[in-house]
Amino acid sequence: MPDSSSAATSIGRSLRRDFTHPADHNASSDLEEADAFQRHAADLLNDLLTPDLLSLAWTSRLLDSFLLCLEQFRALLFGSGAAAAARPPLDRLVADFFERAVKALDLCNAVRDGLDLVRQWRNHLAIAARVLASDAALGEAQIRRARKALTDLTILMLDDNRDGGVVGQRNRSFGRANKEPRPQQGQGHHRRTSSGGSSSGSGSTNHLRSLSWSVSRAWSAARQLQAIGGGLPVPRPSDIAATGGLASAVYTMSAVLFIVAWALVAAIPCQDRGLQAHFSVPRNFPWSGPVITLYERILEESKRKDRKNSYGLLKEIHQIELCSRHLMEITDTADFPLPEDKDVEVREAAQDLVLVCGSLKDGIDPLERQVREMFHRIVRTRTEILDCLSKPNGTE
User: Fold this and answer.
1) pLDDT at position 174
2) Domain boundaries of the chain, sorted by first residue
């Protein structure tokens, strides 16, 4: 897979050139560029309405689309000079967008933790695949070892789904450098939160999960999604006119932020990952149709009988469940030595395990890098624009 960060950066440079205003820019050209941004967002969202919805490959394209939209949004805001974002009414709308965007940082951490869970599940699956897909004869020892790996996988998935498992105990964050020294157990420390606050503590309990911005045990992905998407301020015609269409661009980016965050939580195991966050948009925007369709399709997928209690709607997670269940069923009453037809059936099922393991091995790490890039791009863009908003009277 090509590096999505490099691709997004390259396209971003092109977008900045396309969206840089000439010295004699006017409100009409501003409006045209804002409309072009909305059409581009609509095209990116339309491209996501494909049959491989919620697969690893699709989720990767989802994040690419977000990064491209955010880069174009940044170029649009600064195209006519940074001062524009600091003037009413745009300053209020931009500030609201970044209040929502900062909540997505915790979601990035939670999604990364969820990907790590899937990686652990794959390790158990790989043990069974390695045993059953070998060229050696399948005897009772091999079947027992594979069944034990699948039983451990099932227990791990059930525990993680019921209690949040290690999701609620992660100590890592995209916001901290890996080379930062870790305090000794019992030593005082501070833990920053995504809202800029800090908390302190010490002792062995705090040592388990206090060294980063990771989510706490009480954190809820469902509540976070509601905070991101609830009550999005639809721009008034007067605001659109006063900002040369930039107010519509901010609203567009807010809607894209929500649908991407919501889809990530739908796909990847997250703590308290309910998907019932209320979300609606007017239908008069170019991107409204694909956003609503995407939302409805994912919601419909979550309501399927075989997916209602799923750990995540990612297709590869569903394949883990199906493959492991099928192998447990066909080996439940196996006689040894295995009859030829049973041996063939087990080996065919093992090949399905091999394919799922390969797909996860190839897709998890690149996807985690994209989530990390999403985190850092939000932080960087927010910092740049808040610096602008802090200057008096929108001066540059």
Assistant:
1) 57
2) 4-173+221-391
